[in-house]
Amino acid sequence: MEFMSYNESSNEIVQDENQEEGMNVSDESLCGKGAEQWEDVKYEIADDVFDGDANDYSNDYCNYGGGDNNVQRSDPILEEAEEEEEEEEEEEEEEEEEEEEEEEEEEEEEEEEEEEEEEEEEEEEEEEEEEEEEEEEEEEEEEEEEEEEEEEEEEE
Questions:
Q1: According to the UniProt record, where is the region Disordered (predicted)?
Q2: Contact yes or no for 43/57 (Cβ under 8 A)
Q3: 1-38 pLDDT tens trace
Q4: Is the overall model pTM greater than 0.70, yes or no?
Q5: 103 is in which domain, residue-wise?
Q6: I need a surface site. Which of 19, 20, 57, 65 has the fewest CB within 10 A?
């Protein structure tokens, strides 16, 4: 099997005589460079043999092995993990919203209770004032009666 590498000075892919047989192509500098020269060349990638279009190989290598090509091919495991993470975040947000709603309801209930207590206190105060007024009226009536009795006694 021939091993290839990217020659930056000549901007082309050349045969690499120094590479030992059985090694995989792992040079990240190959990503996105000289893809047209990869046509119909076989390369061993992690025990899988790729035979086909150079751009396909370049994309596979760069997406799964690193390099400076930012195009990402979908990975079911990563997608599932991301979906689970998103679901967890959504659940956490929902829980937080529910907690906030419960807190708001509790605050409203507390405010209502406080208002009721204030109303009760006001009613009690009014009742006390009415009682005091009644007592004062009774006292005045008693005084008037006493005065009348005294006047009657004086007349006799």
A1: 1-27, 50-156
A2: yes
A3: 455 555 566 656 555 555 544 444 444 444 454 444 44
A4: no
A5: 74-130
A6: 20
